[in-house]
Design brief:
Largest sheet: none
Order of helices and strands: HHHHHH
Shape: extended
Helix content: over 70%
Distance between the termini: 76 Å
Number of strands: 0
Oligomer: single chain
Strand content: under 5%
Structural class: mainly alpha
Radius of gyration: 25 Å
Length: 146
């Protein structure tokens, strides 16, 4: 009787460890989907570093830029997760947040930096359109997004 109890207890203990190990691993390491979603998510600190390098921002400009980008990210995420919004309302609110933050960003840039920043944004829009067009061409429906 004692051997059966010991065997049952050992089996339960072993199963508990086997079940807990994948859970602990799942909690400590983000999944592939979470990692790729995290890479796509805006990172204000990284964006400040990139803009500082490309626009030759001063330390003061970098300090002014970080709260603008952080606020934009928080507002965009809140809008994105607001399930009460229609697709059109969500897009309009996101556009408004983007326009507001762009105005604030331009407010801290010199004229030369503004020009470079606009060129960067234009290039980004062109790449975005190219990606969208290439996806449309691959679908076989003959239409292209504009």
């Amino acid at each position: 009787m004692r051997k059966i109890f010991s065997l049952a207890l050992s089996t339960c203990f072993g199963m508990g460890i086997a079940m807990a190990a994948p859970q602990a691993q799942d909690q400590s390491a983000p999944s592939q989907n979470e990692q790729s979603a995290g890479q796509r998510r805006a990172n204000p600190e990284r964006r400040v570093q990139m803009l500082a390098k490309r626009l030759n921002l001063t330390a003061e400009q970098q300090q002014q830029l970080l709260p603008i980008l952080t606020d934009r990210q928080q507002k965009m995420e809140a809008i994105f997760h607001d399930n009460s919004l229609s697709k059109e309302d969500r897009a309009a609110k996101m556009r408004s947040v983007r326009e507001d933050s762009e105005a604030k960003i331009k407010g801290i840039l010199t004229d030369e930096q503004k020009q470079t920043y606009e060129q960067m944004r234009q290039q980004s829009r062109e790449r975005s359109h190219e990606r969208r067009d290439s996806k449309g061409a691959g679908s076989g429906d003959g239409s292209s997004a504009q």
